[in-house]
Each structure stands twice: as structure tokens, then as C-alpha cells.
What does this fold into?
Amino acid sequence: MITVRTLVTATLLAGALSGAASAQDVQAQRQAPRQPLQGIDNGDMTPGEIQKLFDAYLVMEAQQALELTDDQYPPFLTRLRALQETRRRTQQERFRLMGELQRLTAPRAKVVEEGPLKERLAALQELESRTAAELRKAYTAVDEVLDLRQQARFRIFEEQIERRKLELLMRARQQNRPNQQQPGQPPPVRRPPPLN
It folds into this structure.
């Protein structure tokens, strides 16, 4: 179970990463208590908060999972932060473009304007190409700090974190939906409307 102490540590760690990692920041982060990510009581957490938590958790646990040396840790943190920021920025831009496409093609939109639709599709295609190049560059920067085994372990570690994050995001969405049937509960009873 992630405790409040771990959340505070993760928040402090994320704040420390917003600037360049100094030697003191790195030492403080390395000495932060580590606790396994077995579960989380996320009843009040939004998907965005869970994303930030997992970004911080990834940073906190990377040294142990990858067996980073003292020399590798500071540049790894800086490059990992750049990778996370690239992902977040491009994902937000993709969500924005997808929202615009949805609005332009909504069933209630009787007339589809081809000009704006073509522009958004071209922007989406350009974003996908740019995202692939930016992520490749960010991964290359991370890989420059790691040996071959650590590079492979980093990909596996990221995949494990992503799977766990998706599980928690789904749970958070279910908990945030009002009147949603929870697992193990009987389905809601539907009563017919009263007769007049």
C-alpha cells in the first residue's frame, strides 16, 4: 500500500526534478525510503494525479530496478525527466486534436466542413511523425547513460509500471463514476415508471 509518506516523498521528488538534479537532490532522493507498489487507496485521486504519482514512482524505483551507479544516476534522472515531459506534452496535444476531430465529426454536426477536418487530420499525422522522432531522441539520450542490460531492464520496468498505472486508472475511473455498479455488488434495480 502506498502511504502518505511515500506520496509526500514522491511529490518532493517530482518537484526536485523540475530543475536540474543537483548532487544534494540526488543524494536526498537516493536515501528516500522505498516501499513496494502493491496497492493504492485512490478513491479521491484523478487520473492525472495517478499519472504524476507513477512518474515520480518510476524515478524513485529506477535506481534499484536498473542497478544504476552513482555516476549514472544524475544524468539518468535528467534524461528520464525529459522523456516523461516529451510524452506528456505530445499526449496532451494528441488529446486536443482528437477532441477537435470528435467535435467536427459529431453526429449532431449536420454539415461536415472539409477544410478544418483536413487541417486537423494533417496536424494529427504531423504530430504522430514528430512524436515518434522526439521519443526516439529521448530514449537515445536515456540509453547513452545505460549499458545494454540496463537498457533492456528499463524497457521492462517501464512496461510493468504502465500496466500497473492502467489498472489503477481504470479503478479510479470506476470509483469516480456516480451510481456505477461496483464489483461484487448486485446490479441496480430498475423500477417501471409509475402509472398515472
Observations:
- Confidence is low (pLDDT under 50) at residues 1-42.
- The chain has one domain: 4-176.
- DSSP finds six helices and no strands in the chain.
